[in-house]
Amino acid sequence: MRTSRPARIGQYTALLAYLVFLAFPFLWLLSTAFKPPRELASLHPTWIPEDPTLDNFRQAFDEQPLLHAALNSLIAALGAAVIAVLIATPMAYVVARRRTRLAKAVTGWVVVSQAFPFVLLIIPLFLVLKNLRLINSVPGLVLVYVVWALPFALWMLAGYVRAVPPELEEAAAVDGAGRVRTLVSVTVPLLAPGIVATGLFAFITAWNEFFFALVLLKTPEKQTLPVVLTHFIGAEGVADLGPLAAAAFLATLPSLVVFALIQRRITGGMLTGAVKS
Q: What's this model's pTM, rounded to 2 decimal places?
């Protein structure tokens, strides 16, 4: 059915408003990062800095160890994404292909577990990490991020596995391939978009996570980037706005770059033409 002209105008207007709503915080952050203190204190702020400066970036790097904190965040986020995908892929295959009560129970538990608040999990996780002697360590934080990302990763990948035609796996079985060989050689290559999307989700979630890192990491040299950003706020709650905006802008770049590089792979149709009816 063809959409009427007023309906199309309404759709495009709503989409434009949504894009403006999403882009406004980032654009204002970018503008603030390049403004000198005089413009930051102005009662009539402007979108474009009148006298742009890089002093906020220099001050941010001078005041806080941003590069070291970014390295900690990268290790934690990348480690959590890789481990979560490696664990979730075979689990998702079993859940999607085995239509048993246990598989349904696992799927239900995955959905329910996403409703648990962070505060409810932090004490048990803290005690477990304490027994494992992983408190105040980046590997311990990676373990927490894997536990937090795994349920949603399993749920995402199970949906992608169900989209893979079973006829391809049956053909591999006829050729003598076992379950593991079928998973590695047939199913996993077709799951590439889902694996990339799941890994991206786990990476961005871990990169931006703040609460667990704040509680579990006490030594300054082991803190992640979101925790270090709070150091630009003084004891009385007054923020050093210029350096904070500059550091926050730099902290958002990795997520944007990663998504820009792989967004085509996420939306690509890897299964197009795999099965012809």
A: 0.80
